[in-house]
């Protein structure tokens, strides 16, 4: 392991220990345990995706280190047709509509939170697609 990796892992550990300490102090010492249980129940979906992200990140970091150690080419060649780009744009423009429809079917009304979620999802997908296809034209 390189020193940079050790420092990053150490900073992550310090952050985690500090966060756990603050949580314990706030909820346990402040007699707010019911609030803690409610927050933890609401964070379960976030934790599931967070764990999946961390596992994927660890696997990818190992693959990158292995490729660097073997001095393999780090590039990925991907050949897409305009039909593939069209499918990507269809998904790009349908994603906010799907998010709004989910909000409508669940609450029978579209509120501001649904609009913000749809907008953020659209912007992230749009920026990613723009970055991805901008590299292909250079």
Q: State the separation between the terminal residues, measured CA to CA.
A: 35 Å
Task: List the total number of helices.
Answer: 5
What is the typical, i.e. mean, pLDDT? 84
- Largest sheet: number of strands, sense, barrel closure: none
Which class of secondary structure composition applies to the elements? mainly alpha
Can you count the beta strands? 0
Helix content: over 70%
**Percent range for β-strand residues:** under 5%
What low-confidence regions span 5 or more consecutive residues with pLDDT below 50? none
Order of helices and strands: HHHHH
Q: What attributes does this structure have?
A:
138 residues, flat, mainly alpha, single chain
Can you describe what's shown?
The protein is mostly helical. Helices cover 83% and strands 0% of the residues. It is built from five helices and no strands. Helix 4 packs antiparallel against helix 5. It is flat, with a radius of gyration of 21 Å. The mean pLDDT is 84.
What would you say about this model in short?
This protein is mainly alpha-helical and 138 residues long. The protein has 5 helices and no strands.
């Amino acid at each position: 392991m390189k020193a940079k990796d050790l420092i990053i892992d150490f900073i992550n550990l310090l952050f985690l220990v500090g966060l756990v300490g603050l949580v314990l102090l706030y909820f346990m010492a402040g007699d707010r345990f019911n609030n803690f249980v409610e927050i933890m129940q609401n964070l379960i979906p976030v934790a599931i995706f967070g764990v999946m992200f961390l596992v994927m990140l660890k696997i990818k970091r190992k693959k990158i280190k292995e490729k660097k150690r073997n001095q393999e080419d780090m590039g990925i060649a991907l050949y897409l047709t305009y039909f593939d780009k069209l499918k990507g744009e269809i998904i790009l423009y349908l994603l906010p509509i799907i998010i709004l429809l989910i909000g409508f079917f669940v609450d029978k009304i579209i509120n501001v939170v649904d609009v913000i979620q749809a907008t953020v999802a659209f912007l992230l997908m749009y920026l990613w697609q723009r970055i991805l296809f901008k590299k292909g034209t250079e």
